[in-house]
Design brief:
11% helix, mainly beta, Rossmann fold
Length: 446
Amino acid sequence: MKALMTSKSIRLTALFLAVAATGPISAPVAAQEPGDVRIGITYTPGYLPGLVLTPVESGEGLEQVARDADAILRQDLDFSDRFEMIDIPGDFRAGDAVNYGLWNQLGAVWLVASQVSGSSAAPVLRVSLHDVVFGELKEVRAFSLPAVGSADFRMAVHRVSDQVVLWATGEPGIAATRIVFRRKGAEGASDVWIIDSDGNGLRRLTSDESIVYSPDLSPDGSHLLYVSYVSGGPVAYEKNLATGAVQTVSAEEGLNVTPVYSPDGNHILYARTEGDHTELFELQRNPICCGRRVTYTSVGETLNGGYSPDGRQLVMTSSPLGLPHIYVIPRQGRGEPRILSRYVYGERGYATSPDWSPRGDRIAYQAWIESSFQVVTVSPDGSDRRVLTSRGSNEDPSWAPDGRHLVFASTGRSGSAMLILDTVTGRVRNLTSGRIDQLPSWSGAL
């Protein structure tokens, strides 16, 4: 069997022993607080513009819709980490007309006012964004929502929240996104689960009662790639999340692992056995066909491939130097691989699980530092290396579509969790806790 093992890729059979030899990762025993993870770099407090969200107003019969929409909007804007959320004092009286002077005294830069109209079966949420500093209405729009009890209600309000973030900052929000991940059960089996980025909407996507790895959502969120042992060996599958239909992506003899979608959703990049090692291959999609070999490393394992946002380059894990490191190569042709992770001759190095930021400016990965895995980011040219975490074991980083938030699996003194880190402010919050949740992959905007 192979000597290489990567956390985000396979963790299977003898390959698992390679990581176990470098340092075992303890099993979780309880929920983990974000305080168990120390942020490895020093964040200089920056300016966050103050934002006030007035309570969502409503007519008779729409009170519940207004309360639910208010709670979702308030949490989404807070979790965006773009604003200082300002509470309205109990004795504050703003009046019916927008008094920009009063809101300015409260410290607000932005004012969000909302009203619900229509019916409970077809509510309409009208949202206004006011620029308090310049004393003007910046944007206003009405959004049709599903019924408050609908499974689509939260996601519809998430999209409204992301629109407010876009209005105020010119950059995308992350509320209308989901994260797929591998959850291990008590007997060692695992399945793919999905959760909204705010921690709601948890549901199971596979029921193989086997071992699964490497979940990845298609850009439009309609399909799921994953690897399963349900048929005996590691086979790559694609599942239609609307119909439940599953098709085989690759079932070649040996390993078929780490499948991911291209940014346009038209190709699938994965690793499979080629001779006595693994190489990257690419398939066309719809229908799946026309595979081509992408890498020709010949020595060591090559897997964990991923695309640059423009689709012109690939990032990957490869081990021609003996232990795995992160490399970048051109997508087309056989360009010389460029190493990104820290390598010093004679020193121990171990880096895996790369993920290219949707902004294109950073690549995140996990590296073995001292006695555990930590989350690291680096520029695509290999400069400006930043170790983001330094306590516990932190693995499998995946970027949000805003290119500033990361989700990763963490094991600390009090157990296991999936955490979300804002790489700008250093704020950390729990996504899940108390379970063995690993290999998260953040969707694009849905």
